[in-house]
Design a protein that fits this description.
This protein is an alpha+beta fold. It has a single domain, classed as Nuclear Transport Factor 2, Chain: A. Helix content is 23%, strand content 34%. The chain is built from 4 helices and 7 strands. The protein has helices at residues 27-39, 42-47, 65-80, 156-160, and strands spanning 8-9, 82-89, 94-98, 101-114, 117-132, 135-145, 149-150. Strands 1, 2, 3, 4, 5, 6 and 7 form a 7-stranded antiparallel sheet that branches. A hairpin with a 2-residue loop joins strand 5 (117-132) and strand 6. The two termini are 21 Å apart.
Length: 171
């Protein structure tokens, strides 16, 4: 997986009962997935998924969805001249936990180069998680972004995203 979260993974979930965990716990696999992605550590990123946008097939499901998405992203990046992708994320704007299921919305910005030009795409990443053996795992996620814009300066993304200095995002 080179670098970019620009996909959608959709799946239906069936609710079951369990003890609700603190909201902060649901961010653990999201951070693991995004941080692993940013470092090129696919093993760590894929481990965040429970037991797949802009490029076909637009939907990835099943036990190898993350790996299939990464392969398709790599093909898309090569075909469209995308490189140096990195996703920055901020604290969740919404977290809903019901039993062993969680729904989390995270503000993001996808920074990348397209044919050498620096680009930025603000978005929200929405995750559905399932608690397995007391550990949150990603069941599905979707990326909802605006049209990317070319960055006018190196500090451009600071102006368009995460205006709060209290957030944990580092640029």
């Amino acid at each position: 997986m080179k670098k970019a979260i620009h996909a959608l993974l959709a799946s239906a979930l069936l609710a079951s009962t369990a003890i609700a965990a603190p909201a902060s716990d649901v961010m653990i696999p999201i951070r693991q997935f995004v941080d692993g992605f940013n470092k090129g550590d696919t093993k760590s990123a894929f481990a965040a998924y429970a037991t797949g946008d802009e490029f076909a097939p637009h939907r990835w499901t099943g036990p190898n969805a993350a790996q299939q998405w990464a392969d398709d992203y790599d093909k898309h990046a090569v075909a469209t001249g995308v490189s140096d992708g990195s996703v920055k994320y901020d604290a969740p704007t919404r977290t809903e936990i019901e039993g062993d299921l969680a729904y989390v919305i995270v503000p993001t910005v996808y920074l990348y180069k397209e044919h050498g030009k620096a680009m930025a795409e603000e978005a929200s990443a929405t995750f559905v998680l399932h608690q397995e053996d007391g550990v949150w795992k990603i069941r599905s996620w979707t990326w909802t972004g605006v049209n990317p814009i070319q960055q006018s300066s190196p500090s451009f993304h600071k102006a368009v995203c995460f205006k709060s200095s209290e957030r944990n995002t580092i640029f």
